[in-house]
Amino acid sequence: MKTIIAVALFLALGVRSAISQQATEPIRQAVMKSDLRNLVTAEEAYFADSVKYTADLKTIASFYKSSPGVIGLRITLTADGWTGSVGHEGTTTVCVIYVGRTPIAPATAEAKPVCREGGAGPADTAAARAAIDSGNARWIAAFKRADAAGVAALFAIDATQFRRSGAVVRGRAAIQAGVAALFHDNGWADASITTGTVWLVDERAYETGKFAFTFHPAGKPPVTNTGRYVTIWSRQIDGSWKIVVDFGVPSDTAP
Questions:
Q1: Could you write out the DSSP letters of every residue in 49-113?
Q2: Are residues 212 and 189 in the same domain?
Q3: Which terminus in the chain has less CB density within 10 A, N or C?
Q4: What is the pTM of this model?
Q5: What's the pLDDT tens digit per position in 222-237?
Q6: How many domains are there within the chain?
Q7: Which domain holds residue 156?
């Protein structure tokens, strides 16, 4: 009898826990929305002092504190404001908000938080993979034209590229200058990019794969470089994908 009672109690607690989980989802969303409204207040207070918004949480620490359970606060500056998103422990729901004239889906009204189901499902990953395939195709075409601007256009404005020399190139303009120098010294290139795996985490896609570039320097035999790479793509406000980190590892590089 004690065993039956214990089992019944265990099952009842499990059901109660599941019901509790469902019941607290609206509360989680309410907390996330409240935090985003508080974030608006904090950003406006910072703007009043600095005449600009900030994506650095340390600078608004005296104005903003996340509620217990709220995680993953992300602020992205836009041309005339900012966007913000937060998550909460125990749910895949993400709540977003924006200030300015650059919305973040599914929010459509400035300073009014909206929640959407988060997580990366198969459809999301497939869409990201399609965007990456398209970007890689543009990369290959740009290398064949020796088009540095075409390559740079695939990168976010604040992107970072790691060179085989160990140099770190920061920003789209610097990346374009580096690629232009590469074409100047080595000519155009036949290129192949073979994506191995894509992992989608929130608004970023992590891509690994192999590359092969055959350069055609003027008056010299072609030179082929091969290797592996890791590229991080970030979904932009307009829904497009841009490279934020590019890291190639040539085959002749020591492990």
A1: HHSS--S-GGGGTTT--PPTTEEEEEEEEETTEEEEEEEETT--EEEEEEESS---TT--STT--
A2: yes
A3: C
A4: 0.56
A5: 999 999 999 999 987 6
A6: 2
A7: 122-250
